Amino acid sequence: MFVAARVFSLSHLAPRENGIKAAQAALAAGRAIVFPTDTSYALAVRAMDESAVNLLWNIKGQTPKTPLTIFVANIGLINKFCAGITDEAKLKYLHFWPGSLTLILKGLNNLLWNKGIVPNVVSVRMPLHPVAHEIMGDLEILATTSPNKVGQVMGKNIDEIKAQFGNEVAVYLDGGELNTSTPSSILDLTSPLPVLVRQGSVSIAEIALVIENVVMEVEDLSGNKEQQTSN
After folding, report:
1. Torsion from C-alpha of 37, 40, 43, 47, nearest 10 degrees
2. Which letter does DSSP use for residue 106 in this model?
3. How distant is the alpha carbon of residue 49 from its chain centre?
4. In order of start, what are the domains of the chain with their CATH numbers?
5. Of 53, 16, 4, nearest in space to 173 by CA
6. How far apart are CA 153 and CA 164, in angstroms?
7. In whole angstroms, what is the distance from residue 114 CA to residue 121 CA?
8. Which of 126, 58, 62 is nearest to 97 (CA)?
9. For every one of its 231 residues, what pLDDT tens digit does the chain have, with 9 covering 90 and above?
C-alpha cells in the first residue's frame, strides 16, 4: 500500500508534537524517518528491527558494508548490544554524552545489524539534540546514517533530503537548515589502546583527560597510517 511521506515543522508546538508522535509510529511500523541532530540530519530506523535495518541500507542505496551509528538516549541500553561495558566505563562515556563523540565498541554476537565488513563492532553515540531524545524516550535504540543516497551530497535541509528519498522515508521532521557543524569525533575502543580515528568537535586533549593512553591515527602523504600519542 502506497503511503505518502509526511513533513512536520518543528518550529511550532502543535506540529512538533504531532511530528514526534508520527515519527515514533513510523519507527514502530518498520519505516524510516529523518530528524535533526546536533551535527546534521539523520536517517534512522529501529536498530532492533532486522527488516527495518535492511530497509535502511536499501533506501540508502548501498550494500550493508558501511557500519551504522547507533543512537541511544539511555546509557544503560548499550549493554543490549555491546560486550563488556563496565559501570566505570559508562561513567567515562557520560563525561562526553550527550554530545558529539562517537565510540566504536565491541558488539555482542547476536547483533541484528551486524552485516558490515568488520564483525561484532558497533559505532554508538548519544546525540545532544532534544528532538532525538523525544523520539527515543528512554528505551528506543536507533540505527542511523547520513541522509543522502550513495554518491550524492548530504542535504542540509528537508527539501534537499526529501528530493533524494521522497516517499521511501515515512516522516521528515523539519528543523530548518542546519548550520555547518563539525562532525563528531570517533574513538575506537576495540583495540588495546584507545584510538582517535577522527578528530571532530571533541579534541584528543579533551578525551585524554578522561580516557587514558589515547593515541591518534593519522595518515601521511603516502597514504600510510600511523599513530601518534596524545602527549
Report:
1. -50
2. E
3. 16
4. 6-189 (3.90.870.10)
5. 16
6. 10
7. 8
8. 126
9. 557 999 999 999 999 999 999 999 999 999 999 999 988 999 999 998 989 998 999 999 876 666 789 999 999 999 988 988 999 999 999 999 999 999 999 988 777 666 555 667 889 999 999 999 999 999 999 999 999 998 899 988 999 999 999 999 999 999 999 876 688 999 999 988 999 999 998 999 999 999 999 998 754 333 445 444 333
- C-alpha cell, 30: 518498520
Q: Are 64 and 91 in contact (CB under 8 A)?
A: no
d(CA 102, CA 127): 9
Would you say 202 and 184 are in contact if contact means Cβ atoms under 8 Å apart?
yes
Which cell numbers hold the place of 199? 578528530
Q: Which of 123, 126, 152 is nearest to 138 (CA)?
A: 126
CB-based contacts of 109: which residues, under 8 Å, 6+ apart? 120
Cβ contacts of 16 within 8 Å, gap of 6 or more: 8, 9, 10
